[in-house]
Specification:
Bound molecules: S-adenosyl-L-homocysteine, iron/sulfur cluster, FE3-S4 cluster
CATH superfamily of the largest domain: Methylthiotransferase, N-terminal domain
Shape: globular
CATH topology of the largest domain: Rossmann fold
Oligomer: single chain
Number of strands: 18
Strand content: 15-25%
Distance between the termini: 23 Å
Structural class: alpha/beta
Length: 461
């Protein structure tokens, strides 16, 4: 999963009785959770709005993964507090402020202490209780839920029907993490690994397909540890049977849980897209051991070899951390060497951020900020070069593109290639929601350009 800030979710079509603003930080699972919060609040008359000003309820769905992500929450809360005061002063009524997500789970009490304007905090496993919490907060200020990790209770309480706004959708199938990488807060904020029963996942996917969704991305902190019957491979095969679902992706995977059945699915299930985000973090075995990653650079390369044997054109993506405690120049060079060897088509790279309560925070040999900066710049330069080369290699090919929305210019459409590249081309709006062949004519770092090749037969991809 790649943490970044996402824009607020879909504004409601008609003027709702109560206005709900949700801002989402962090990974795709938070994006999914924000949509589900809107789903549980809709029956109470809350409709999603795209601005916090004057909103009746503001939810910040937060991320704790790095220090910067966490600090952003506090500065954002400062701004929201002013809007709350303005609203009250103008006689327009109360604004309720809720903090959800991983910061709420990790430091709920601290949030309440640092920002008294916050009415409630709710962890990622407890947001199905938002209606009750809001009612309680309205009665008695400062009420807070001690979030627990009962993921099954949450999913049981969420409606199986969804209200998707586009042709692609996220679908959480697994939550939590038992891996305890020494740098990471996720096992503490999301709890133990837990898998949803396949039945409810399939029902949710059918509801999405009935409402025009063509592509689902299965989400889990360790999605390939999905423990339902048949594992993730079995689930993928069942989802591929659903009418309307043309593309399936999944994220994020751990190298340790990439089993033979899943690799075989990449060879055999055409709906499973040839793009795999498989974080490796480092190319140095010393550092991987200190990170408690339970794999080596060699075992990762061997795994990629097997995956590529099953699906030769697969685009590999990954996550990297530079400046983990004790990382020396030679360790960093090993990371660069691994990136060159794998030829990642995309990747996310981060400077190590010391997180309170994690084992690595207490390790000796914390790396100086300037060294981290320099290593990150060098790694990014290499990753950028590889990404550009991967994109450039598509020029001249005809790729099946799932059109998602109008492009930036009139008459233009925007979609995705099987390899998750953004593709722009001219075309009629009716193509949105459809897969059509596009001849790729231009490539940049972040996207491809081309033209419709309607009469072309598609290359398998
Ligand atoms: N299960 C997911 C976790 C999401 S965290 C996964 O394994 O991919 C996403 C990425 O954030 C991780 O892969 C790691 O590269 C990065 N990350 C996690 N903790 C970090 C920290 N303390 N400092 C810097 N990057 C971190
Ligand atoms: Fe964090 Fe490691 Fe679990 Fe991913 S596998 S969520 S990096 S502890
Ligand atoms: Fe952030 Fe929590 Fe996701 S810490 S990356 S929002 S699991």
């Amino acid at each position: 999963m790649h943490p970044s800030i996402h824009s607020p979710i879909n504004p409601a079509m008609s003027a709702p009785a109560k206005r709900l603003y949700i801002k989402t930080y962090g990974c795709q699972m938070n994006v999914y959770d924000s949509e589900r919060m809107a789903d549980v609040l809709a029956p109470l008359g809350y409709g999603v709005t795209d601005s916090p000003e004057g909103a009746d309820l503001v939810v910040l769905n937060t991320c704790h993964i790095r220090e910067k992500a966490t600090e952003k929450v506090y500065s954002e809360l400062g701004q929201i507090k002013l809007m709350k005061q303005e609203k009250a002063a103008s006689g327009a009524g109360e604004m309720t402020i809720a903090v959800a997500g991983c910061v709420a789970q990790a430091e709920g009490a601290e949030i309440m202490r640092r920002q008294p304007a916050v009415d409630l905090v709710v962890g990622p496993q407890a947001y199905h209780q938002l209606p009750e919490l809001i009612a309680r907060a309205h009665r008695a200020k400062g009420e807070r839920l001690a979030a627990d990790f009962a993921a099954d209770a949450k999913f049981d309480a969420l409606p199986t029907t969804r209200n998707p706004t586009g042709v692609t959708a996220f679908l959480t199938v697994q939550e939590g993490c038992d891996k305890f990488c020494t740098f990471c807060v996720v096992p503490y904020t999301r709890g133990a690994e837990w898998s949803r029963p396949a039945g409810t996942i399939l029902a949710e996917a059918r509801s999405l397909a009935e409402r025009g969704v063509r592509e689902v991305t299965l989400l889990g902190q360790n999605v390939n540890a999905y423990a339902g019957e048949g594992g993730l491979a079995g689930l993928v095969r069942q989802l591929a049977q659903i009418d309307g679902i043309a593309r399936i992706r999944y994220t994020t995977s751990h190298p340790r849980d990439m089993d033979e059945a899943l690799i075989a699915a990449h060879a055999e299930v055409p709906e499973l897209m040839p793009y795999l985000h498989l974080p490796v973090q480092s190319g140095s075995n010393r550092i991987l051991k200190a990170m408690n990653r339970a794999h080596t650079a060699e075992s990762y390369l061997e795994l990629i070899g097997k995956i590529r044997a099953a699906r030769p054109d697969i685009a590999m993506s990954g996550d990297f951390i530079v400046g983990f405690p004790g990382e020396r120049d030679a360790d960093f060079e090993a990371t660069l060497a691994l990136v060159r060897e794998v030829g990642h088509a995309a990747a996310f790279s981060f400077k190590y951020s010391r997180r309170p309560g994690t084992p690595a925070a207490a390790l000796p040999g914390q790396v100086a900020e300037e060294v981290k900066d320099e290593r990150l710049a060098r790694l990014n330069a290499l990753l950028d070069e590889q990404q550009k080369a991967f994109n450039a290699a598509q020029v001249g090919k005809v790729l099946p593109v799932l059109f998602e929305k109008p492009g930036r210019h009139p008459g233009q459409l925007s979609g995705r290639s099987p390899y998750l590249q953004a593709v722009h081309c001219e075309g009629p709006a009716e193509l949105i929601g459809q897969i059509a062949p596009v001849r790729i004519e231009a490539a940049a770092k972040m996207s491809l350009g081309g033209s419709l090749a309607a009469s072309q037969t598609l290359e398998p991809a």
